[in-house]
Amino acid sequence: MVLDQLYAITPLVTTLLTFYSVYLILALSLNLIYGYCGVPNFGHVFFQSVGAYVAGNLTANVMNFMFLGGGNICEIATAEARRNLALANPAIAMGFFILSLAVGILVGGFFGYIASYPALRLKEDYLAITLIFIGEIGRIIARNEASIACGLVGLTGIPNPFIWVGDPNLSLIIYTIMAVIIAAIIFVYLQRLSNSPFGRLLKSVRDDEIAAASLGKDIAKARGWAMILGSSIAAVAGVLKVFYAQGVFADDYIPLTTFVVLSMVILGGMANNRGVILGALLITLLDFLVAPSFFRLIGVEIQFDITYIKYIITGIVIITVLLFRPQGIIPEKPVETIGLKIARQNIKREKNET
Amino acid sequence: MVVVFPPIVREAIIFSSLLTLLSTGLTLTYMTSRVPNFAHGSFATIGTYVSLVAFRLFSLSPYQFIPVAFVLAGVVSFILYKAILRPLARKGASTILLMIATIAYDMLLIAALNITADFLSRNYKVTSRYFSLKSADIRIENIPMVFYAAPLVTAIVIVALYLLLTRTKFGVAMRAAIENPSLAGVVGINVDLVYSVSWFLAGGLAGVAGLLMALWFIGNPDLGTILLISIFTASIVGGLMNIYGAFLGGFLVGFAEVLGTANLARAVGVWIVPYRPVIPLLILVITLLTIPGGISSIKFERFIGRVRKGGF
Fold it and tell me: What domain of life does the native source organism fall in (chain B) (predicted)?
């Protein structure tokens, strides 16, 4: 009885956790670019969408070409054939996921490199304006150009890499665990990166680029690398989302997503990865609580279109935090260097002695 | 003698005039508070819905509601400045943070507009999404009045702004507050009042533009947000630091968008039409890479002087 109920809500829980991982990865990468390096990358959703289009397009086209003898990727029949192929063949199912992840990271990084061209030359407000619009144009192109992700209809039939397990819920659970692990790996990597000399370089570029340049630091290179790393990590989030949803829909990548992610960074605390974990959790939960599926679950009928509540919540969160706690819930902390650790130990020892 | 414009030129004139109105407001607020206001598009959408309410609910001509749209959008814009941007700026927030705040405010407006649209269609059985109010317009010799009204309103606004800034005491105070806020404060100019008035004016102009827009374009809660890219491009091309630059930018971008899309559609096929926003984006990128200060920042006197001297 209890097991049956647990079984029924499994997709809901896995969706929540996978979306949390996706949002967390996005928020961490935006934090690297904006929080640590100070580049206002307001077109962040574009880099996620790059990962999504790569995953969808590559998987569908190569699967069709290599195993199914060609055919239009947008047709339902080929989508079904791809699913069946993945059901029968675990190696292909997982191989395509790993391939998409690798290519997605590369292509995402490449677009980050291109986007760093204006990032090194424009004043920050002009840069933010340009990046928002570039991201939006990317979506407009994807929704009108069928060869990217089947335009408005969306590209479906991107099989879950664990679909061959048999039980659909079990494959969702395995996928979710993997998504959480990937998010954790990225967190540890970024945490180490931000405490490294490179992390300090990024902060110095953000705080005072003239001072950084006078110490012989290459500002352009630091900004460029922050953009490249940040956008390839965002592409990972795109790949993860596509293989979970088993499809790519261009209209998922609206500018609002960037600002939902930005609200996580601002709420948690800029330039603080731990804060971002908390911020992402809070906003994802809020997001989930105002989703129609949740209201259906608790049996409440809603009279109006609830999606706009999401806009209101995101807007109010951003404005309130900016006005009343601009440093976020967990404020930025000094970089954990070896020197700082020794100094802390010394202070502790002195206290113990007295 | 009646000059007959081809429909596409008519469309370009209406679009450019309204774009000019919108980018004038955007430039005004940027000049005063140095913040790119992303909620500006939604101020216009407020005007669009005032138009809808006027015609469908009160059965009145939208032109009679111009003051309502002006005041309503003006107040919404004023609240953004007074309640959010000014306290943030006083705390020393950076331009980017102020910009994020305007985006957050825009989200609230988008939600409010969508809920209003739902409310109108549910309670009054009014088509509140993808609606056209072309039938609400008065026709003069079979030409819709908005074709005259849009350029006329724009011209009046430009002349009025010029007179305000050069002929009145308040306008001089305004220019002083823009040039050097702290010095203006020292000589007794109420800088905060000047900024508040600028924000109110900017929002009001956007509201009027949105109201007129409803008479020609398809109205929807995201009408203004979609136009944002054109508005920003028009302001930046004209020069964000020159109020008259918006006039130049508005007509340049407006004509390039409308005529460019129409001609491209004829040349390569209608599939190109959805890519219309690419045109302002390209103009924006080219401007930022070549003359980031906009057209009005070019020192023509110096250029002509160099030519006269005979050497570059």
Answer: Archaea
Point out the residues of chain B with pLDDT beneath 70.
1-4, 310-312
Q: Considering only CB atoms, which chain A residues are within 8 Å of B91?
A: 326
> How far apart, in whole angstroms, are the C-alpha atoms of residue A88 and residue A164?
6
**What is the reported pLDDT for B1?**
45
- Taking CA B112 as the corner, what is the angle to CA B111 and CA B114, rounded to the nearest 5 degrees? 65
User: Could you give the CA distance from residue A125 to residue A281 in angstroms, rounded to a whole number?
Assistant: 29
Looking at the complex, report in whole angstroms how far the Cα of residue A87 sits from the nearest Cα belonging to chain B: 38
Q: Answer for the pair A293, A12: CB distance below 8 angstroms, yes or no.
A: yes
pLDDT in the model for residue A105: 96
Q: What angle do CA A23, A272, A209 make, to 5 degrees?
A: 110
- Report whether A63 contacts A141 (CB < 8 A): no
CATH number for the domain formed by residue range(s) A10-353: 1.10.3470
Q: Number of Cβ pairs closer than 8 Å across A and B?
A: 110
* Domain assignments of chain A as residue spans, ordered by start: 10-353
**What is the Cα B265 distance to its own chain's centre?**
26
Give the relative orientation of helices A44-67 and A219-245 as an angle to the nearest 10 degrees.
50
Interval A219-274: pLDDT, tens:
889 999 999 999 999 999 999 999 999 989 988 898 888 999 999 999 998 889 99
Question: What is the percent of chain A where pLDDT is above 90?
Answer: 44
Burial class (CB in 10 A: 0-12, 13-18, 19+), A197: exposed
Are A272 and A35 in contact by the 8 Å Cβ rule? The answer is yes
Sequence-distant (6+) residues with CB within 8 A of A344 are: none
CA A242, A310, A28: angle at the middle one, nearest 5?
A: 50
**Chain B hits for A315, Cβ within 8 Å:** 104-108, 111
**Region A169-180: what's the mean pLDDT?**
93
The C-alpha atoms of residue B297 and residue B220 are separated, in whole angstroms, by 36
pLDDT of residue B142: 78
Residue A299 identity: G
Model ipTM?
0.88
Pairing of strands B139-140, A155-156: unpaired
Element (H, E) at A322: helix A307-324
Give the containing element (helix H, strand E) for B140: strand B139-140
